[in-house]
């Protein structure tokens, strides 16, 4: 079970790109939607925002948030019913255990592109201000997985970037020096890019420094696993400073 992160959604989106410009013959699934919207609708574009796929039609777009990488299947089905499926003349895309939203707007009207770690619009100054103004009392480990603050951070990006920045995930945002936070945000943006490259060429998990690893590569200290909000994070207690 691999949880999605912004770059993995982007990677799958690139594979779905061949459905751009195609006509949807119908949609189905357990999610209640106005199916008439999709009758012979032209799929204009496929984009992403954080962990959402965005399917753009003329009058609206569909945002689909997928939590596990294996929950998007093309021309294959699971035994359980899909949350939502697109049917084309000869193909289908099935989304399982996913959140579907249909919005009569443009993606940029609804999502703040400055918060998406994989977008050129990503604005570290904006995020820094948001963290220090509205989330100062929270732990950085919690804040990193809050998709409203940083869209696209998942468990691997959280673990690896906090390790690189030498910050313990339980550190309170108000106690972390500003320059450390700036470095962390830079790391997140850089690592999101590296993550996408690794998906194309190698393995993200294999190349991770401490995610699901036993010992710190630097000092051989046993890596601790903890769960924050039911999602695993890994910590080197020696390298990562706990700011309280
Ligand atoms: Zn260490």
From TrEMBL:
InterPro entries: H2TH_FPG, Ribosomal_uS13-like_H2TH
Gene3D superfamilies referenced in this protein's UniProt entry, alphabetically: 1.10.8.50
Protein name listed in UniProt: Formamidopyrimidine-DNA glycosylase H2TH DNA-binding domain-containing protein
Domain (Formamidopyrimidine-DNA glycosylase H2TH DNA-binding) ranges: 113-197
Coiled coil ranges: none
Domain of life of the organism encoding this protein: Bacteria
Lineage: Bacteria, Pseudomonadati, Bacteroidota, Flavobacteriia, Flavobacteriales
Family matches, as SUPFAM superfamilies: S13-like H2TH domain
């Amino acid at each position: 079970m691999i949880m999605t992160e912004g770059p993995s959604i982007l990677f799958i989106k690139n594979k779905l790109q061949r459905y751009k410009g195609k006509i949807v013959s119908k949609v189905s699934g357990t999610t209640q939607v106005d199916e008439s919207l999709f009758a012979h609708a032209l799929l204009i574009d496929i984009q992403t925002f954080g962990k959402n796929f965005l399917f753009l039609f003329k009058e609206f777009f569909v945002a689909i948030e997928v939590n596990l990488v294996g929950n998007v299947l093309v021309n294959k089905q699971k035994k359980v019913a899909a949350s939502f499926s697109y049917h084309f003349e000869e193909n289908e895309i099935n989304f399982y255990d996913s959140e579907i939203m249909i919005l009569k707007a443009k993606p940029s009207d609804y999502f703040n592109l400055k918060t998406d770690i994989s977008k050129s619009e990503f604005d570290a100054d904006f995020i820094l201000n948001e963290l220090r103004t509205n989330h100062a009392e929270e732990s950085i480990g919690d804040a990193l997985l809050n998709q409203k603050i940083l869209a696209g951070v998942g468990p691997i990006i959280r673990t690896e970037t906090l390790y690189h920045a030498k910050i313990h995930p339980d550190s309170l945002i108000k106690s972390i020096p500003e320059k450390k936070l700036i470095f962390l945000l830079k790391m997140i943006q850089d690592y999101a890019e590296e993550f996408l490259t690794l998906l194309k060429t190698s393995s993200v998990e294999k190349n991770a420094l401490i995610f699901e690893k036993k010992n710190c590569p630097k000092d051989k200290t046993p890596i601790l696993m903890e769960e924050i909000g039911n999602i695993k994070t890994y910590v080197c207690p020696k390298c990562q400073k706990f700011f309280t």
